Amino acid sequence: MNRFDYVRAGTVEEAVQAIASGANARFIAGGTNLVDLMKYNVERPGRLVDITRLPLDRIEEQDGGLRIGALVTNAAVAYDGRVEDRYPVLSSAILAGATGQLRNAATTGGNLLQRTRCYYFYDEGTPCNKRLPGSGCGAIGGVNRIHAIFGTSDQCIATHPSDMCVALAALEATVRVAGPSGERTIPLSEFHRLPGDEPERDTTLGADEIVLSVDLPAEGFAGHHTYLKLRDRLSYAFALVSVAAVMELEGKTIKAARFALGGVAHKPWRNEEAERMLLGKPATRETFSAAADRVVSEAKPQSENGFKVELARRAIVRALEQAAAGTPQSQSDKRIA
Ligand SMILES: Cc1cc2nc3c(=O)[nH]c(=O)nc-3n(C[C@H](O)[C@H](O)[C@H](O)COP(=O)(O)OP(=O)(O)OC[C@H]3O[C@@H](n4cnc5c(N)ncnc54)[C@H](O)[C@@H]3O)c2cc1C
Ligand code: SF4
């Protein structure tokens, strides 16, 4: 690990000033991702800006929805009564990730900005355009079982690893950020980006901006939702494919529906055309299969992850069926007997 300075910000303004200091500074919140990356020499900040004392640790009512401060821990979000009652898909997604200890330390802002779990990204001895732009991509034609099947580029095929963000995509949350020129909001769908020819950039957040909060809209789809996570082990593993599905039904007819996929792209993956195919249709396996077929028709698998295409298709159908069937659907209900 390289030597670095440490400063603690007392206000958001101080944090923004410190990050713009030119010392290759990084914010540190829970530290559960950043410190690992520093130990692997993937991140080499000259300065750490500790933001843990900023007043961004509350969940507040906001325009009929909820404003989740960037420093609210993953555990505090998942177990907040308002989130459990009104946005259960978010609780469920968070509880499907990491472990209790990690969720107690990890923050909302840090979860949004956690970096890919591509093996090559963590291994200094291999080429990786995300870690070292222009060095190549070890995963293309290499070991790529866990990699993306949608939205890849010839520079990077990494996936975004967060569970929380998949639920936020289905809920159409927004991210409130602040920088030297003030505050702005970014729809979750535009916060994470595809790799294109700049795979080193995971998000559209400016280098001098801080995440202040994630804002949830009023509609939480508490009646019909699911977060389905498929992985190699039942706990302590990242998703091979996950699906957050939310729905509103009128009788057996679908009035509104959204679904987002995790583990398959550089960002939570939505296909709005497939979602529109559900509207006004009966909530049946045939309806869900047609939408799933539409999504996977755009898949471009790599040498080792062709299995993800069929896995994603089946996961979409199953998640939509679970959402249509209604609650309760806690993670513990999903244990394999
Ligand atoms: C063993 C292990 C298993 C895991 N399993 C899962 C899993 O199954 N599913 C899952 O979703 N996640 C999983 N995680 C990842 C975990 O959720 C993240 O490490 C965590 O959410 C990061 O939050 P943090 O507060 O610790 O971020 P930090 O490590 O402090 O920061 C991460 C990044 O975010 C930036 N940052 C933090 N806060 C802000 C802010 N407010 N504004 C701007 N930038 C900010 C930092 O500069 C850094 O670049 C796992 C992690 C570990 C170590
Ligand atoms: S997939 Fe992306 S993160 Fe992984 S080696 Fe290639 S460039 Fe690096």
Classified by CATH, the class of the domain at 225-325 is: Alpha Beta
Q: How much helicity do the residues have?
A: 25-40%
CATH superfamily of the domain at 225-325: CO dehydrogenase flavoprotein, C-terminal domain
CATH topology of the domain at 225-325: Enolase-like, domain 1
- For the record, the CATH architecture of the domain at 225-325 stands as 2-Layer Sandwich
**Main sheet attributes: strand count, strand direction, barrel closure:** 5 strands, antiparallel
Sketch the topology as an H/E string, one letter per element: EHEHEEEHHHHHHHEEHEEEEEHHH
Number of beta-strand segments: 12
Rg computed from alpha carbons, rounded to a whole number of angstroms: 20 Å
What is the strand content? 15-25%
Overall mean pLDDT: 95
Strand order, largest beta sheet: 4-5-8-6-7
Total DSSP helices: 13
- Structural class estimated from helices and strands: alpha+beta
Catalogue the ligands: flavin-adenine dinucleotide, iron/sulfur cluster
List keywords for this structure.
alpha+beta; binds flavin-adenine dinucleotide; 28% helix; 337 residues; binds iron/sulfur cluster; globular; single chain; Enolase-like, domain 1; five-stranded antiparallel beta sheet; four-stranded antiparallel beta sheet
